[in-house]
Design a protein that fits this description.
Largest sheet: 6 strands, mixed
Strand content: 15-25%
Number of helices: 9
Helix content: 25-40%
CATH architecture: 3-Layer(aba) Sandwich
Structural class: alpha/beta
Strand order of the largest sheet: 6-7-8-3-9-10
Number of strands: 10
Radius of gyration: 18 Å
CATH topology: Rossmann fold
CATH superfamily: P-loop containing nucleotide triphosphate hydrolases
Distance between the termini: 28 Å
CATH class: Alpha Beta
Shape: globular
């Protein structure tokens, strides 16, 4: 997969205001149609005797302003699903749609952040120039471009590092640069593929909280693919649990935890432990 982590690398057709049409923190209460809708989606590689069905008949939704996490066993097809949702490859059957429009290519209102930040950042460019990369295709006035970069770096706590190079930063700071680059593009939907898996535990907690802050500050709809069950429960309004081979949706579990969430108090709640156990039990259940 191309590890460039913003939509312009996929399709620089345009951008929209991140704050529009958002119901941040009110995932299930609105009557509006789903922002992202996956219906009976399947993906098969190869044909004939060599055909291999990876995901089959997946159906779920993501509402405006929600954080939804997708979890499942390693190798179940989570990244394949993400590629279909991002328009990087076509589904074999079924559909994925944004606001009712079938995704037939990289959607202009979507940005992606991948796990391997070391490959998605250009080591010969400063932090500021890395964040600027996806904006080159938008033909923005210089003042607006600079404002977007400043806002994105401030949002991820890296305003002080704008003139440094990625190789001068810690892993967690590099991942913040990747997130800032996505924010500068101003997507309405942010998809993240194992975004915090390559950092230490403390940095991971900080980046999880940054993810929730981005949702609140920018009204963004966020879909996260993760192997970490605790992370999924902590971040999510709902968790989509995948299982079996080919992958199917085993269940979509609503996460009823108080807001705002906190790494210590939230994870100490009995409800957190109960919901973590529910998700883990489904993943560990024999196919």
């Amino acid at each position: 997969m191309n590890t460039t982590d913003t939509n312009p690398a996929l399709n620089p057709a345009g951008t929209t205001d991140m704050t529009a049409d958002s119901t941040s923190g009110n995932a299930g209460g609105a009557t509006a149609p789903p922002r992202l809708e996956v219906t009976a989606l399947s993906k098969t590689y190869g044909s004939g005797a060599n055909a291999k069905c990876v995901i089959e008949d997946l159906t779920f939704t993501v509402n405006t302003g929600e954080v939804v996490c997708i979890v499942g066993p390693s190798g179940v097809g989570k990244t394949t699903l993400l590629k279909c949702l991002a328009g990087l490859q076509p589904a074999t059957s079924g559909t994925a749609a944004i606001d009712g429009r079938t995704i037939a290519g990289p959607p202009p209102e979507m940005a992606l952040v991948f796990q391997d930040y070391s490959r998605s950042l250009m080591p010969w460019l400063t932090v500021r120039k890395n964040v600027r990369l996806p904006l080159r295709h938008l033909h923005l006035p210089t003042q607006e471009m600079n404002q977007r970069i400043d806002t994105a770096l401030e949002a991820v706590g890296l305003a002080h590092a704008a003139n440094q190079y990625p190789w001068q930063l810690s892993g967690g700071m590099q991942q913040r640069v990747a997130i800032a680059r996505a924010l500068a593009y101003r997507p309405e939907i942010l998809i993240m593929d194992e975004p915090f898996a390559s950092v230490d535990a403390q940095t991971r907690f900080e980046l999880e909280d940054l993810c929730l802050k981005i949702r609140e500050d920018f009204g963004m709809t966020i879909l996260v693919v993760t192997h970490d069950i605790d992370e999924a429960v902590y971040l999510s309004d709902r968790v989509v649990v995948l299982g079996s081979k080919p992958a199917r949706v085993l269940d979509v579990i609503g996460i009823d935890l108080p807001a705002p969430r906190d790494q210590i108090s939230t994870r100490s709640l009995p409800e957190f432990a109960e919901q973590r156990t529910t998700v883990l039990s489904m993943i560990r259940k024999p196919a």
